[in-house]
């Protein structure tokens, strides 16, 4: 199964998934009628610019006596955004604002491990 579809179907609270590896960006929103959803143009910029910078900055800090970086979780006004580095890029998962995103982390890591290997299992 495709990683985007697998993650999108992992939990009802997941609204959007993007996987960027190198120059390849695959993204999909669960339902076009989601309340508070950002535009696809905004999502594209987030995946090409914002999320790589977040991972770089937090990853660099994680290497300075913090034991590395596992993932980044951002609380925007309308949703949560989970971002994790994967080989050659990152995975980004938008989670409904009313849900507990930390409770979804084990599920996300299991799915990532299935697609990218055991290295993704720690959380």
Main sheet summary: 5 strands, antiparallel
The structure class reads alpha+beta
Structurally, how many domains make up the residues?
Answer: 1
First CA to last CA: what distance?
23 Å
Beta percentage is 25-35%
Fourth-level CATH superfamily: Dynein light chain 2a, cytoplasmic
CATH topology: Beta-Lactamase
Q: Give the radius of gyration.
A: 14 Å
What is the molecular shape?
A: globular
Q: What value does the average pLDDT take? A: 90
Low-pLDDT runs: none
Strand order of the largest sheet: 2-1-5-4-3
Q: What share of residues is helical?
A: 25-40%
Number of helical stretches of at least 4 residues: 3
Query: Element order, helices and strands?
Result: HEEHEEEH
Looking at the overall shape, the CATH architecture is 2-Layer Sandwich
Q: Which CATH top level class fits?
A: Alpha Beta
- The number of strands is 5
Description of the molecule:
- The protein is built from three helices and five strands.
- The model has no long low-confidence stretch (mean pLDDT 90).
- The chain is of the alpha+beta class and 123 residues long.
- A five-stranded antiparallel beta sheet has the order 2-1-5-4-3, with helices on both faces.
- The protein starts with a helix and ends in a 7-residue tail after the last helix.
- The chain has a single domain, classed as Beta-Lactamase (2-Layer Sandwich).
């Amino acid at each position: 199964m495709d990683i985007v579809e697998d993650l999108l179907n992992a939990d009802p609270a997941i609204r959007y998934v993007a996987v960027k590896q190198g120059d390849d960006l695959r993204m999909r929103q669960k339902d076009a009628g989601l309340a508070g959803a950002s535009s696809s143009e905004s999502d594209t910029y987030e995946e090409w610019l914002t999320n790589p910078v977040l991972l770089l900055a937090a990853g660099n800090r994680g290497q300075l006596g913090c034991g590395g970086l596992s993932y980044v979780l951002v609380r925007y006004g309308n949703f949560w955004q989970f971002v994790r580095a994967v080989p050659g890029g990152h995975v980004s998962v938008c989670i409904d604002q009313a849900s507990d995103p930390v409770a979804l982390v084990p599920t996300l890591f299991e799915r990532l491990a299935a697609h990218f290997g055991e290295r993704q299992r720690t959380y």
